[in-house]
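Practice problem 4.
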């Protein structure tokens, strides 16, 4: 139970980083924290079924389900790709506007239009 509470706290820290900060880089870090908390939650819940490898030597026992692990490996790869794309867009916005602050970027884009 304490693991789930800690993961909820981790998720809320990431959510707070996305909602409270105006800096794009801090929002990207918050997105990564949320991704990590969800991945850890799925791995934690997937490991509750069993903790033995799914190779049957002496019979059927409580083995770990490999599907959540494979899905979370895919989620980690997708998270890295989203982070790379987000950072590339942040760098592009910085080059065009000169700031990572969302309000400054929005104001400069409106001034140009």
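Answer key:
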């Amino acid at each position: 139970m304490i693991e789930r509470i800690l993961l909820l706290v981790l998720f809320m820290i990431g959510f707070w980083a996305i909602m409270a900060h105006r800096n794009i880089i801090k929002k990207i870090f918050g997105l990564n924290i949320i991704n990590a908390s969800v991945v850890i939650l799925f791995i934690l819940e997937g490991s509750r079924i069993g903790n033995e490898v799914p190779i049957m030597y002496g019979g059927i026992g409580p083995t770990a389900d490999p599907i959540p692990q494979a899905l979370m490996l895919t989620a980690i790869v997708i998270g890295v790709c989203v982070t790379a794309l987000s950072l590339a867009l942040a760098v592009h916005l910085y080059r065009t506007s000169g700031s990572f602050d969302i309000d400054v970027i929005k104001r400069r884009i409106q001034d140009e239009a």
